[in-house]
Amino acid sequence: MTETMQRVRLHNLRDIGGIRIGGGRFADAVLYRSAAPLRDDPSIAAAVHDLGVRSIVDLRDQQERSMSPDVWGAADLRVEHLPVFQDRLRSIRFQTLDELYDIMLGDFAPSVAAAVGAVLTRVSEGPTLVHCTAGKDRTGVVIGIVLDLLGADRADVLSDYELSQSSLGRDYLRDLFGVAGPDDLPGGAAHRATSAPRALLAGALARVSDEFGGAEAFLLAHGVPQPTLDASRLLIERTSAIGT
After folding, report:
1. Helices (H), ranges, the chain
2. Where are the domains of the chain?
3. More confident residue, 184 or 141
4. Please, what sign has the CA dihedral across residues 133, 135, 145, 106?
5. Lowest-confidence region among 44-48, 168-172, 211-215, 217-221
6. In angstroms, rounded to a whole number, what is the distance separating the alpha carbons of residues 126 and 236?
């Protein structure tokens, strides 16, 4: 983690750069993932801007957003709201995260695809940060599909996803429930679950493959245009270009 990243007071923040893709790797400093800002601190936006980020893709429901500090306006950042659960998270009933992921890729597949398309579009314009509340489940699936589309090494994709387990803990829960009570936050059960076992994302990506034939077919079936998918290949740094 760079010194600039260490100054950003966001839980679960990391750069996707470096993940292996065929004969190359995902480019550094173009796509970041994190939890939502949970402290009313304008320096968060300034520090994210210092990373080079110019676009934010926020996957939360409106009710989640209304319960947390709105800090992005403190810097010149374009914010795009794409609620994966279509502002219906409070009404969704599930017992386990496996069930929630099944619902996400079943009932809300068009929203997931739209979020992936938005991330690809924003990244083509400049460095982008994508987040939900924890930066784990919705963000994990969206980032996972982006990487799967590019043909990233599956072990690397799952290892990146699993990092949320060590990044989210007491400090995250303290900040989260400092802005919203457990019973007030939509999907409170999911937000209290800070584990991110790789099997969860592995199952989600397997469903995309089994039902649609892969990430590209999934995205095309839900309206993401082919030129957007083609342009995403520019995110791959070839080995010959990086001297490794």
Report:
1. 3-6, 43-50, 62-67, 97-106, 109-125, 138-149, 154-162, 164-167, 170-179, 188-192, 198-212, 215-221, 226-231, 239-242
2. 3-231
3. 141
4. negative
5. 168-172
6. 14
Distance, CA of 17 to CA of 143 (rounded, Å): 12
How far is Cα 228 from Cα 244, in angstroms, rounded to an integer?
A: 28
Predicted TM-score of the model (pTM): 0.93
Length of the chain: 244
- Alpha carbon distance 117, 96 (integer Å): 27
What CATH architecture does domain 3-231 belong to?
Alpha-Beta Complex (3.90)
Sorted by sequence, the CB contacts under 8 Å of residue 191 that are 6+ apart come out as 133, 134, 176, 182, 185
Q: How big is the chain by its Cα radius of gyration, in Å?
A: 17
3-state secondary structure of 239: helix
**3-class state of residue 7 by DSSP:** coil
Distance (Å, rounded) from C-alpha 138 to C-alpha 158?
Answer: 14
Which class for 211: exposed (0-12), middle (13-18), buried (19 or more C-beta within 10 A)?
Answer: middle
Each residue's pLDDT tens digit, 176-192: 888 877 677 777 667 67
184-232 confidence digits (pLDDT tens): 777 766 767 788 999 999 999 999 999 999 999 999 999 999 999 999 9
Q: Measured at the alpha carbon of residue 192, what is the angle toward residues 186 and 198, in degrees to the nearest 5?
A: 110
| CA triple 17-124-63, angle to 5 deg | 85
Residue 103: both structure tokens together:
């619902």
Closest CA to 161 of 152, 150, 170, 172: 152
